[in-house]
Amino acid sequence: MINLTSAAMTRVVVVVEDDPAILALCRVTFQRAQEGPLRDVRMVDAMDLESARLIIAAEAPDILVMDVRLPDGSGLDLVRDLRRSGMAGRTRVIIASASVLPAEREAALAAGADRFLPKPYRPAELVAAVVDLLREPSE
Amino acid sequence: MVAESRQEVPIEGRLDTLLAGVEKAAHPGFHLSVLKLRDDRLSPLLVLVSRHASLFADSDRELLVALGAQTAIVVERRMIVADQEELAARLSSTVEELHAASEAKSDFLASMSHELRTPLSAILGFSDLMRSEPSADGNVSVPLEWIEHMHRGGEHLVSLINDLLDLAKVEAGRLELRVETLDVGALALEVANGVRPIAERKQVRLSIVAPSTSLLADRGRVRQILYNLLSNAIKFTPEHGAVDLRISTTPSSVEIEVGDTGVGIAQADLETVFEEFRQVGDHDARQQGTGLGLALTRRLVEAHGGTIRVESVVGRGSRFTASLPSAGEAPAPVAIARSPHALLRGESVASDRSGILVIEDDPSAVRLLREYLEPAGHVVHVAAGGEEGLVLARRLQPAAIILDVLLPGVDGWDVLRRAKADDAISSIPVIIVTVVDEKEVGLALGAVDYIVKPLRRTELLRSLARHVRPTGNRPKVLAVDDDPAALEIVRAALEPEGFEVHTTTSPVAALEMLQEGRFDLVVSDVVMPDLDGFELARRIHENVRTAEMPVLLVTAHDLSEADKMRLNGKIIGIASKGGAAQHGLLRWLEPYLPGPRAAAL
Prior knowledge:
The complex is a heterodimer. By secondary structure, chain A is α/β, with parallel strands linked by helices. Chain A has a single domain, classed as Rossmann fold (3-Layer(aba) Sandwich), CATH 3.40.50. In chain A, about 40% of the residues lie in helices and about 20% in strands. Chain A is built from 5 helices and 7 strands. In chain A, the strands form 2 sheets. Chain A has a 5-stranded parallel beta sheet, with helices on both faces. The longest helix of chain A is centred in the N-terminal third of the chain and has 14 residues, at about 20-35. Chain A is globular. Chain B is an alpha/beta fold. Among the domains of chain B are: about 180-325, Histidine kinase-like ATPase, C-terminal domain (Heat Shock Protein 90); about 350-465, Rossmann fold; about 475-590, Response regulator (Rossmann fold, 3-Layer(aba) Sandwich). Helix content of chain B is about 45%, strand content about 15%. Chain B has 17 helices and 19 strands. Chain B has helices at about 15-25, 60-130, 145-170, 185-200, 220-235, 295-305, 340-345, 365-375, 385-395, 410-420, 440-445, 455-465, 485-495, 505-515, 535-540, 560-565, 580-590, and strands at about 30-35, 45-50, 180-185, 205-210, 215-220, 240-250, 255-260, 305-315, 315-325, 355-360, 380-385, 400-405, 430-435, 450, 475-480, 500-505, 520-525, 550-555, 575. In chain B, the strands form 5 sheets. Chain B has a 5-stranded mixed beta sheet with strand order 4-6-7-9-8, with helices on one face. Chain B has a 5-stranded parallel beta sheet with strand order 11-10-12-13-14, with helices on both faces. In chain B, helix 3 crosses helix 6, helix 5 runs antiparallel to helix 6 (about 295-305) and helix 14 (about 505-515) runs parallel beside helix 15. The radius of gyration of chain B is 37 Å and the shape is elongated. The interface of A and B includes residues 22, 25 and 75 of A.
């Protein structure tokens, strides 16, 4: 069990997702997880790349959960930019996508993602991935 | 001196002409010496050009001929190589095409997998959450919103699968069109109202110009064309954009035009936009959809003998125009006194008595009714509660009301009682469809029919055929009697009531007429020489095209029990020829009478 209980340790997860149902699912998932393994996690969301960039710059999130096909471009581009700029050194990235072919998974990891979470995923899988990444020290 | 040219010049005409040309091109005073390298018409030529003819000795000529022959072989080889290269190029472009086709299929599969997984996320995700909610006695209580998300996910999946199946049907050439005369304008308004919430959510302005326009087409498919074009336009239009739908006519066609201020389509992609499995534009930024919508739309338009085209400017928007041929022999447009804008504002409008109002709170029952009614050409309006149903009935003036008894709030009996007491809607026939088996009560309260669930399609459609006259023109009756005088009596009875009466003395001719023209009703004699009324009714109902045709038999005699058995379920009734013939006929045909029904009947 990792210790995320101290008030100073509030973690931020930014979820970028254009499907309102999946976004709602994430909200409930993190809400429920606050009663369990992710006590001090706060979730912030964005539904397109443009707002995602603003929010990431403002929040410097610990975890970024990123969809790929977004209305104004590819989530992979944002992740690549993030990695290239070195801005998000401590941000761990989960690409959550319904594009699950091997080439698509590889492209996600090549863009700089730490994890690939295929859709449809179970809420517990999302939570487990976040817990895992928070536990691993970031480089 | 050997003149060599790499350029291949097609040589046509006679050798003399060619040589004259060469001579002319050479400097004056030069001599030409032409050697044929082979002894045939297509032989390569060696042309020697020199100021002094005597400079070439015979041995020189022999040497040159030998060299020339070698050159000819080289040239021939080169030509063969060129042929091979061309063949190889053709092969490789074929391979490329095949590769592109197979790539398009893989792309499609990837896209399909993506599209199916996305709605599954909501279904599996929320049901998973539901499972882990704390339960009491095996029950959990969850927010309605979760169920909404799951339900919408399910609906989305179904529509994807339907698109796929439709496309497969079209590809296999198994698409059947149920063609009827319909009002594209009214249909367009209906579809526009359906997509309006999506537009409003994106703050996309939707403007519709859809005058009442008659068209001979399949209602369900035209609805699909309209829906696909509209929802596509909204999908690809950013917030605060605009989408417009315009229905217009040319002398030979009805044009459905949908424009948007969306992202637009690159010139290079305009040709592939209607291809199956294609979604143009940036791969990762694709919008939700299977890449099937436009392909399907094109196929549906083409199935109607129409064409579809697109114009677009990247960044400015696109305009799709589907052009459906207006049939030369289509019935004259039905005059419908309604203003589209009034309808959009939800105001009460003059009725064309079209559409069926379903008052039913159970969505699955509504879905079933739609499945039965819409392919048969009925426009379905739905009210989930009694009060709402009564309001809609007054506003829409539907051709019939299908009413469930068990409703939240006001129950079906109350709705029926109030409908029958309301002058504005009391003449609309009400058919009760319910699990409550209390037929007598229903009929006593004024329902024209009472169907106990489970509902069968034919039962419902027959009931409607019996009680609802088709929309539009005067109802067309086909009267069959071997006695011309009797036909005149039928005509005299029905024409003043607004029926269009066609007559024939031959039942066989009647069957042909029914195949060729649209009739709403058959009135037939029972005893006829070559085919009796029973047999005629049987043959009419055997044919899929006329299976639902109401048939009224008119007879001078009382029927035997055996005869009545033969008629079971086949005809709408039997009118007596004797006595008050006209009254007898009209009593049966009352539901088909045009215009407002007399409440007294």
